[in-house]
C-alpha cells in the first residue's frame, strides 16, 4: 500500500494551509494498492516531537476501502472521527511551539469495519485494530514553528 500527497513530498514541509493557526485544512492524501480484501481504512496523524510526548492531530476510521483520495480539508463520507489531543473530533493541524516537528500520516487497511464510537482516541483505535491490519502506509511532513 502507498500513501502520497500532491500537496507535499515525503519528508518535506507541509503547506501553510495545513497549520492550526492558518486555514487548518488537511492536505490531500492519495492511497494506492489497497489490498483487495480490505473492509475499511483507518488514519492517524500525529507529531512525535511535541514537548509532552506524541500529540495526536487527526484520527479517522471506517473510511470506505474504495476511497483513493482524501480531499484537502475533507473527511471521507462514512468515516468516523476520533478525538484528537486538541479535544476535537476533526483534523487540527500543526502548531509547534518551537523548532521543526515531524507529522506522520499513517493509513491502515483493515479486515473489518470497526464498532468504535465517534470521539474514541488513537489509543482506543490502535487496540481495536490489533490483529486486523492487512497493510499500512506512512507519509511524513514537517512544519516549523512561527517566529
TrEMBL record:
One Pfam annotation, family name? PBP
Cell wall biogenesis/degradation is among the record's keywords: no
What are the alphabetically sorted keywords of the record? Protein kinase inhibitor
**Gene Ontology MF, one:** protein kinase inhibitor activity
Q: Does the keyword Cell cycle apply?
A: no
InterPro entries, alphabetically?
PEBP, PEBP-like_sf, YbhB_YbcL/LppC-like
Q: Which domain of life is it from?
A: Bacteria
Q: Which SUPFAM superfamilies match?
A: PEBP-like
Q: What is this protein called?
A: Kinase inhibitor
Q: Which organism is it from?
A: Methylacidiphilum kamchatkense Kam1
Amino acid at each position: 500500500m502507498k500513501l502520497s500527497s500532491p500537496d507535499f513530498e515525503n519528508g518535506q514541509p507541509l503547506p501553510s494551509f495545513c497549520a492550526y493557526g492558518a486555514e487548518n485544512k488537511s492536505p490531500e492524501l492519495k492511497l494506492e494498492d489497497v489490498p483487495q480484501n480490505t473492509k475499511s481504512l483507518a488514519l492517524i496523524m500525529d507529531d512525535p516531537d511535541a514537548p509532552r510526548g506524541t500529540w495526536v492531530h487527526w484520527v479517522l476510521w471506517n473510511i470506505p476501502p474504495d476511497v483513493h483520495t482524501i480531499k484537502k480539508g475533507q473527511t471521507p463520507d462514512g468515516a468516523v472521527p476520533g478525538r484528537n489531543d486538541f479535544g476535537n473530533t476533526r483534523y487540527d493541524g500543526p502548531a509547534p511551539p518551537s523548532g521543526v516537528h515531524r507529522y506522520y500520516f499513517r493509513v491502515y487497511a483493515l479486515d473489518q469495519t470497526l464498532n468504535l464510537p465517534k470521539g474514541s482516541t488513537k489509543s482506543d483505535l490502535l487496540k481495536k485494530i490489533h490483529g486486523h491490519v492487512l497493510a499500512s502506509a506512512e507519509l511524513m511532513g514537517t512544519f516549523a514553528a512561527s517566529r
